[in-house]
Amino acid sequence: MKKSTIRYSDRAWELLEAASAETGRPIASLVNEAIELPLQSKGVQSDETR
Questions:
Q1: Within 10 A of 8 (CB to CB), how many other CB atoms are there?
Q2: Is residue 50 a part of any domain in this protein?
Q3: Are 18 and 30 a contacting pair, CB within 8 Å?
Q4: In angstroms, what is the C-alpha Rg of the chain?
């Protein structure tokens, strides 16, 4: 892996941890929401919303 990839991964993880601490939501929940929202705006439904 390139150094820049590691740096971005570390920063992304820091942001996820901070968002989790601020909202009290698990990181997995935040990630799922971040993935599902753009898909729902395009008309794609997840297994949970079908």
A1: 11
A2: no
A3: no
A4: 14
Owning domain of residue 23: 3-41
pLDDT (tens digit per residue) in 2-49: 666 667 788 989 999 999 999 999 999 999 998 888 878 878 776 655
CA atoms within 13 A on the CB side of 37: 6
Q: Looking at the 3D structure of the chain, how many domains does it have? A: 1
Q: Retrieve residue 31's tokens.
A: 């990630």
Residue type, 22: E
Quote the strand ranges of 1-50, DSSP E. Answer: none
Give residue 20's identity as a one-letter amino acid code.
S
